[in-house]
Specification:
single chain; elongated; alpha+beta; 15% strand; Gyrase A, domain 2; 188 residues; 5 helices; two-stranded antiparallel sheet; Topoisomerase I, Chain A, domain 4
Amino acid sequence: MDISVSKNCIAQAKDKMEKAVVHLEEELKTFRAGKANPSVFNNVMVDYYGTPTAISKVSSVSTPDSKSIVIQPWEKKMVAPIVKAIMDANLGFTPINNGENVRINIPPLTEERRKELCKETRTSGENAKMSVRTARRDAVEAHKKFKKDGLEEDICKDAEDEIQKMTDNCVKKIDTIVEAKEKEVMTV
């Protein structure tokens, strides 16, 4: 057995770990932190001729100021379905339909809601860490199997050390991301 198998396994583990970090960043973008952020609508689907479609695919979403969001549909008849989709998503907004577009005024977050968002942020961070640790465990177990199959012990040991360093780096990134989001949420 040659070293390329080990390198391939490490590359796969690194890819899984990085995807966990990217997923966390994308997930935290959808958390409302008291200021207007169009990405809170990333997961909201609108009924577009019978097909669930992301709001961003049927309209432009902009933030004219830090306390409001304007959704300008490309087709006038999409205003009502967009309002319905936002109400169904239960994001805590009351959309205002003026016939041309949808305006959303962002209410300030209550202290209770801020604490709840921080808790959700930490939970998302822990889920990302679990994904990183699972990738580490799978890679380490694969290397133990490689060692039984004849890969040199030094190569396996070096690979395990590299995998642990990658894990530590990803966990640090996750902690930094979670800390920054908590700070953003708690800033009034």
